[in-house]
Amino acid sequence: MAYTALIAIGGNSLIRAGERGTIEEQLANAHATAKSIAQMIKMGWRVVITHGNGPQAGAALIRSERAAGEVYTHTLDMCVATTQSEIGYMLQIAMEHELSLLGLDKFVTVVPTMVAVDPNDPAFQKPTKPIGPFYSKEVAQEKKEKLGWDIVEDAARGYRRVVPSPEPMEVLQLEVIKKIIDLDIITIALGGGGIPVVKRKDGSIVGCEAVIDKDRSSALLANGLNVDLFIISTDADQVYVNYKKPDMKGLRYATTQELQKYYDEGHFPAGSMGPKVESVIRFIKNGGKKAIITSFECLMDALEEKAGTHISN
Question: For the chain, is the Cβ count within 10 Å smaller at the N or the C terminus?
Answer without folding.
Answer: N
